Amino acid sequence: MEKRTNNSEVKAFTFNALEGPSTEASKSLKNFEFKDLSDITSVSLKPTEKIIRAEREAESKTQFKMDSVVRDLRGLSTQEKDDLEKKITEQVERRLAQIREQAYREGIEKGRLEGVDAALKEAMQKHEQQIVTVEEMIMDLNRQCEERLESHRHDIYEMSKRLLKWLVFHEVKDDGYLPKLLEKLILEMNQRQNLVIRVNSEDFKLMPQILENLEKRLGALTNVRVEPDLNMVNRGIVLETENGLLDATPEAMFLTLDKLFETVVNHSG
């Protein structure tokens, strides 16, 4: 058996640069940067119209009844109002079409017997009277809608107040909240010496680093004393200066919100 000689030469494989030779495409390469997800601040939680309608149908078929605040927040009340207004508009348009058709036919019939002018005049008078009746019906339905909205006004205010409080708690949990808050309070009081800063016991450990970073932006802060407040549960700051005292705790913010909404409700009532 004839043996074949393999004359292939074995060469070492060398990895070339991934970018390849310098071309116009390689010049356009840019470094990829990961963006901070915290920049995404707008998240839509509102359900679709289809989901809202399915929830309304399920509610009507069972003994389950949603709370009015939940209905407003989920959009069920808004969809019910829109459906009611659409239904009213369709009924009014259908009724007006019937009135016009009836008036037209009556005009033709009477025109044949008594003359076109006299019949048309009588039909138009009747038509106008029917339109007035429909307008009165629309006004009555609008009044009913306004009364229903007024009955839920207090619930809407309560829902808005709870949402604002939730946003405050969400902001307080951010790591950068305390330094930003302290800087804002100092600039508002316009005083950088003889300061007494009260925080909770947990944030008390962070204050030396926070003050050091703050002085790099605002300049030197002299005669500053930081005290832990054992009665302070949530993250916040009470700043005492020669010009006065600022309470920037969540509890103080909630008290201000309660008074604000109470004034709005009483004024609306």
Beta content comes to 5-15%
Number of strands: 4
Radius of gyration: 37 Å
Order of strands across the main sheet = 2-1-3-4
Largest beta-sheet details: 4 strands, mixed
> What is the residue-mean pLDDT, rounded to a whole number?
76
Quaternary arrangement of the chains shown?
A: single chain
- Give the N-terminus to C-terminus distance in angstroms: 112 Å
Number of domains: 2
Classification by helices and strands: alpha+beta
H-E string: HHHHHHHEHHEEEH
Low-confidence stretches: 40-44
Principal-axis shape equals: elongated
The total of helices stands at 10
Percent helix: 55-70%
Describe the secondary-structure layout.
Elements: H1 24-27, H2 49-61, H3 68-74, H4 76-114, H5 116-151, H6 153-172, H7 177-189, E1 193-199, H8 201-204, H9 207-218, E2 222-228, E3 237-241, E4 244-248, H10 250-268
Parallel strand pairs: 1-2
Antiparallel strand pairs: 1-3, 3-4
Structure, briefly:
By secondary structure, the protein is α+β, with helices and mostly antiparallel strands.
